[in-house]
Amino acid sequence: MSEKKGKESKDFWKAIEENNSSFLKKNKKQLILQKNKDNQTLLHYACIKRAKLSIIKLLVQNLNINTKDNLGKTALHYACEKIPTKTVLTMLIKNGANIHAQDGEDHLPLHIICTRKRITEKELNLVIQPETDVNAKDNENKTPLHYACEYKLSGEVVMELVQRGAKTNQADVQGKVPLHYCCENGGRLEVIDVLTKTTISINEKDKEGRSPLHYACIHKLKVECVRLMVERGAVVNAKDTSKKTPLHYECENGIRKEVVELFLSNGGVANPKDENGLTPLLILFAKTGQSEIVKILIENGADLALQDQDQLNSLHHACKNAVETVVLEMIVAKGVDINSRDSQGKTPLHYACENTPRADSLALLLQKGADPNAQDAPLHNSSGRWR
Fold first, then answer.
1. Residue 80 lies inside a defined structural domain of this protein
2. Which of 100, 153, 162, 366 is the most buried (most CB within 10 A)?
3. Is residue 201 part of a domain?
């Protein structure tokens, strides 16, 4: 390519960026010759840059509308990604854009448009025809419904997909169904309502054994959404591959009184152990200011004497994490052995003396009979670090 032609080529791309339709019309015969390093035509580029409809129309009239770039994308793929308006999509499709074209990752335009948060059923239906497979899988086995849930599309859009045959229990390569993505990404109540009308997907597990309810607790899904899932049959005691229940994750991440009470009042058990021997209560001690939830768990049967795999019980964990004295008082009042030892021979007092000890906690432990002369001389560990 000569220097002159190279300069002219750049002018075409610049004309797209500047919406310079007069230049493009004047050089209409050369439009077909233009491709960039990504093997994109000017039509691809116009959709990427959200060019005016008049420019896109001009390019459609002079270029192959279904040419693919190096990523296997057509102009319609980019239009669905960048400018999924009814006007642009209608014009492309009426002029022969293939709504069944797959890109290099097996995405249909339908997959891509389901990543656009503000689309309505009207835009969605433009890329669906009677023969369109609404359950088409991409290279990660994700369907359009997976993306609609991942990107928090409206309940109306999700309902439209489901009414057109989208399967709510279709799993991707990670074993996740659409409801997993909904719970992972702060899904809307109306979407969860649509997805849980039947219980077909509500307890599906991914490859880590996690149900949507696990994800709801890990990602702090709104309480009203969690409540609806439980009402629709979500199993509150389901265990993942690490043996954690939703209550474990709620005590680790969400820490919401309403959710803890919801689980316990719907058959949730307070003492399941994970693979490390940790109960929800033991996990909760790593979080500060949670005396109210600790009380709820204790009132619902949390066993304070249970030990983890290192033989630490509730009092060890409470002292290790320097919890409020009011929590220690609750534990001691239930008769937990104040001088119990873990696998390293440490008592709760040892842990209370480590890091930055609380003077009030140390005083309480000693008052209740903690042995200051236990092996390792725990009080020596606290020298100069009282607060």
1. yes
2. 153
3. no
Domain count, the chain: 1
Residue 272 lies in a domain: no
225, 189 Cβ separation under 8 angstroms: yes
- What is the domain-level CATH number for residue 105? 1.25.40.20
- Evaluated on CA atoms 38, 39, 42, 45, the torsion sign reads negative
363-383: average pLDDT: 77
- Reported as a single tens digit per residue, the pLDDT across 197-234 is 977 889 999 999 999 999 999 999 999 999 999 999 99
Residue 321 buriedness (CB in 10 A; 0-12 / 13-18 / 19+): middle
C-alpha gyration radius of the chain: 30
pTM: 0.91
Q: Is 158 within 8 Å of 195 (Cβ atoms)?
A: yes
Find tokens 């997993």 and name the residue. Answer: 180
Range of the domain at 93: 1-109
Q: Residue 354 gets which letter from DSSP?
A: S
What is the rounded end-to-end Cα distance, in angstroms, of the chain?
A: 77
- Give the pLDDT mean for 74-100: 96
Give Cα 6 to chain centroid, integer Å: 46
Residue 349 host element (H or E) = helix 348-353
Q: At what angle do helices 53-62 and 86-94 cross, to 10 degrees?
A: 10
CB within 8 A of 299, min separation 6: which ones? none
Residue 110 to residue 346: CA distance in whole angstroms: 60
Answer yes or no: are the C-beta atoms of 179 and 149 closer than 8 Å. Answer: yes
